[in-house]
Amino acid sequence: MGAYSNKRWPAHEAWKQVLRKRQKLILCPQYREAMHDECIMAVVFGFTAPLMEKILLYSLPVEYESVIDLFTSKVDITFSKGNIVISN
């Protein structure tokens, strides 16, 4: 039994694509109040653009790509131990 290998990408690039598809962002409890309304809109209405914009506002420029990648598909928002957990 062997694994499928895509010859177009080297192994490290293929692994990077796998990791990029599944992401998790954990925000500490201090962000809970600042992003409450945006989280409610994302959960209830499925409208995640305001939440992404607010997270980008607090993010460093080197983090922009990973935040945008996280929001390219459907996201799940949960609360764990006071933290906001956003995952896809």
* Class from secondary-structure proportions: alpha+beta
Low-confidence spans: 1-5
Residues in helices, as a percent range: 40-55%
What is the percentage of strand-forming residues? 15-25%
Q: What is the H-and-E element order?
A: HEHHHHEE
Query: How confident overall, as mean pLDDT?
Result: 80
Specify Rg, calculated over alpha carbons. Answer: 16 Å
Major sheet attributes: 3 strands, antiparallel
Give the N-terminus to C-terminus distance in angstroms.
30 Å
Subunit organisation of the chains = single chain
Strand ordering within the main sheet = 1-3-2
Number of strands: 3
Q: What is the count of helical runs?
A: 5
Envelope shape: globular
Write the layout of secondary structure elements.
Elements: H1 11-21, E1 24-27, H2 30-34, H3 36-45, H4 49-58, H5 64-70, E2 76-80, E3 83-87
Antiparallel strand pairs: 1-3, 2-3
Describe this structure in words.
This protein has 88 residues and is α+β, with helices and mostly antiparallel strands. The chain contains five helices and three strands. It has helices spanning 11-21, 30-34, 36-45, 49-58, 64-70; strands at 24-27, 76-80, 83-87. It has a three-stranded antiparallel sheet with strand order 1-3-2. Helix 3 (36-45) runs antiparallel to helix 4 (49-58). The radius of gyration is 16 Å and the shape is globular. Mean pLDDT is 80; it is low at 1-5.
